[in-house]
Amino acid sequence: MKQTIYMQLLSLLMLLATACSQEELPASGNSGYLSLNVAVGDVKVNVVRTKAFELPEVEIKIDILQDGAVYDNHSYSLGTLPAKIKLEKGSYTLKIYPADGNSGPEYDEYTKDFTIEEGKTTNLGTVEMKMQNLGIALVLPDGFDDWFKSYTFTVIMGETTQTLQNGGIAYFDKPETNNFTYKLEAVNLDGETMSMSENYLKDNTGRPVLDTNTIYVIQYDMETKSFVVR
Hints:
The chain is mainly beta. Helices cover 12% and strands 49% of the residues. It has two helices and 16 strands. The longest helix has 23 residues, at 2-24. The radius of gyration is 29 Å and the shape is elongated.
């Protein structure tokens, strides 16, 4: 009698355990998978000679939408995007866009409609996000502050003017003139003001060439108490 009760109790526990496992596992029917890879394209850096230069990080968001809203919390960043996303069969929209709070680099929003079929994987391949504007960076030489007590660096591109600090980046839309002017004005320890203004010309050939997805680094060297562009 005790053995019969024990066997019945064991069977009941196994049944309960099976029921719990089935509730925790997602349903396998009526679903398929989405496979994609999202990458931020490498930003080109135009600099005369190698020097450590840090580019700002950009946060990209990836949403799976259905009927205009995020479907079942399927919202990801580049670091959390899984290799495959399980979805119920149906029609969806992929939306990739820069997160709020990004300043400077501009990226276009990417959208694509797709369909998930039961038991199949929809592969959307690789989506590469590229910066749609360009940046101007300033790099002053080590020891600059030992010779100059103050400075102002100004960039003029089209109708836009921005000032920069050492190591900073200013972002611009690509101008119709396809060129920009920059000026460094500094006061040395003797109180003398020195000024240098240049146009950016690729390889000094006289042909102005600017491109998006590029950071143009203006890097100065010092000769005694003056400065030259390298």
